[in-house]
Specification:
Layout lengths: L1 H19 L14 H4 L5 E6 L10 H7 L2 E4 L5 H4 L9 H12 L3 E9 L11 E2 L2 E2 L2 H18 L6 E6 L13 H6 L2 H13 L4 E6 L5 H16 L6 E4 L2 E3 L5 H14 L2 E10 L14 H4 L11 H20 L4 E7 L30 H10 L17
Parallel strand pairs: 1-2, 1-11, 2-3, 3-6, 6-7, 7-8, 8-10, 9-10, 10-11
Antiparallel strand pairs: 4-5
Helix pairs in contact: 6-8, 12-13
Length: about 400
C-alpha cells in the first residue's frame, strides 16, 4: 500500500509539473487584456468548446487571446468514441487535440466514465441476452480507458475520469449499470486504469452540486474511501452551473477548505451564471414547465441592471477563487460566448446571457469585473521608524 501511495504521489507531482510546463500567458504591452494573463500564476483558465472548433476560425481569436485550456463538449465522451464494442471513432478527438497542440493550449479530456445509463453505450452493460457481470464490465472499462487515454497519453493534461457518480437523493451512489454491478469499485478501478495508462495526467472526479452540503458530505465520504483504497484521485471538479442571485458562496468556500485539508486540488469545470433562473423547472414535480417554456424575457437584449448584477457576482466568485488559488487548479467556462451557451436551450429554449462575452465575442461588464477581481491585492505600506511616513 505504501508503494502504491508513493506511485500515486509521484503521478500527482508529475501532473502538476506537466501543467507548469505549458507556456505562460503574461500579456505584453501591446497585447489585449486577457483572462489567461490575469490568471497567470493563480490557476489555469479554460473553456468548454464545440467539438468543431478546428473548423470555425472565426472563434479562434477570442479563444486564443483569452484561454489556455480547452474541453471538448462531446467528442471524448464514451458514446461517440465507442458506440459499439471495439468500434472506436477518433476523427473528431484527433482533430481537436491536434488543433489545441498547434495553439499551445491544454486539453481537458471529458470524460472516460459517465455514471449514468443513458450516457453510456448500452452494449457496455449487456452480455448476450443478459446483463454483464462485474468482471466483464470492468474489463470493458479497462479496454476503453487504455485505448482512449492511451491514444492521447502526454497530449491531454487532465482527465475527468468519472463523471456524476453521486446520487442527488437519499442514495450514496447514483443507481446505474456501473454501481449495480460493481458498487464503488468501478470508481476505484477507473482511476487505477487511467493512472496506469497516463501517470502524468491530472485525474479528476467531476460532479454537479457537490459543493452543496448534502452532496458535499457524500463527496467527502467517497474521497475518504477512495484514499483508503489507494485510488489515484488528484482533484475534484465542481461544475459551477450557477444562477443569478443564487451563488452558493459560503458552501463553495467550505468545500475549498475541505479539499485543502484533504490535500486535493479543485477544478471549476463548467462555469456559467444563468440570468434566467431555471430551478423552478424541476420544482413540484414539473408543474411550472408549461409556463416556463414560454418564458423568454431577454429575447431583445439583456437589461444593463441584470448585466451589472451578473458582473458583481462573477467578481465575488473570482475573489474567492483567488483567495484559494493554492487549491484551485483550473477554472473553465462552459462555452465560449453567450451565443454558444447550452443555456439557450436547456432546460427550455430562451435567449440567455450566462458568460463573459456577448454573441459577437465582445466583452461584457462581467469580463471587466473578473479581471479586477484577479488583480493582486495592494500591499499595505509600512511607516518607517524614523519619520512615520509611508513609502
Amino acid at each position: 500500500m505504501q508503494t502504491q501511495r508513493l506511485s500515486i504521489r509521484r503521478g500527482f507531482l508529475a501532473a502538476i509539473g506537466l501543467l507548469a510546463a505549458w507556456p505562460s500567458a503574461i500579456a505584453g504591452p501591446n497585447e489585449p487584456r486577457s483572462l489567461r494573463a490575469a490568471s497567470n500564476g493563480l490557476f489555469t483558465i479554460g473553456a468548454g468548446v464545440n467539438d468543431r472548433i478546428p473548423e470555425t476560425p472565426n472563434d479562434w481569436p477570442l479563444l486564443i487571446a483569452q484561454f489556455s485550456a480547452l474541453t471538448p463538449e462531446n467528442c471524448l465522451k464514451p458514446n461517440p468514441v465507442q458506440v459499439a464494442e471495439g468500434s472506436f471513432n477518433f476523427t473528431r478527438p484527433d482533430a481537436f487535440v491536434a488543433f489545441a497542440a498547434s495553439r499551445h493550449l491544454q486539453v481537458v479530456g471529458h470524460c472516460l466514465v459517465w455514471a449514468k445509463d443513458d450516457r453510456t453505450p448500452p452494449w457496455f452493460f449487456r452480455d448476450g441476452e443478459g446483463t454483464a457481470d462485474r468482471d466483464l464490465l470492468l474489463a470493458r472499462m479497462k479496454t476503453h480507458i487504455a485505448t482512449v487515454a492511451g491514444r492521447y497519453r502526454s497530449r491531454i493534461a487532465m482527465w475527468d475520469v468519472v463523471n456524476e457518480a453521486l446520487d442527488d437523493g437519499k442514495e450514496f451512489l447514483r443507481p446505474s449499470g456501473w454501481s449495480r454491478a460493481c458498487g464503488e469499485d468501478f470508481i476505484v478501478k477507473a482511476f487505477e486504469f487511467a493512472h496506469e495508462v497516463d501517470p502524468q495526467a491530472l485525474l479528476i472526479y467531476n460532479d454537479y452540486n457537490n459543493e452543496l452540503p448534502g452532496k458535499r458530505e457524500k463527496q467527502i465520504r467517497l474521497l475518504r474511501s477512495l484514499r483508503e483504497k489507494g485510488a489515484p484521485v488528484h482533484a475534484i471538479g465542481l461544475q459551477g452551473h450557477y444562477e443569478l442571485d443564487r451563488l452558493p458562496l459560503a458552501d463553495l468556500e467550505a468545500t475549498l477548505v475541505a479539499m485543502r485539508e484533504f490535500g486535493l486540488k479543485v477544478v471549476v469545470s463548467e462555469l456559467d451564471i444563468d440570468v434566467i433562473p431555471r430551478s423552478r423547472w424541476w420544482a413540484d414535480g414539473g408543474r411550472y414547465r408549461e409556463e416556463l417554456a414560454k418564458l423568454d424575457p431577454y429575447r431583445d437584449g439583456c437589461p444593463p441592471e441584470i448585466l451589472r448584477r451578473q458582473a458583481d457576482q462573477y467578481a465575488q466568485l473570482f475573489r474567492l477563487f483567488r483567495k484559494y488559488s493554492d487549491v484551485v487548479a483550473r477554472v473553465s467556462f462552459w462555452n465560449l460566448h453567450d451565443g454558444q451557451s447550452w443555456l439557450n436551450d436547456f432546460p427550455w429554449k430562451r435567449v440567455n446571457y450566462p458568460l463573459l462575452f456577448d454573441r459577437e465575442g465582445k466583452s461584457k461588464p462581467a469580463f471587466d469585473a473578473v479581471l479586477e477581481a484577479l488583480k493582486p491585492e495592494p500591499t499595505a505600506s509600512k511607516p518607517t521608524p524614523a519619520t512615520g511616513k509611508a513609502h
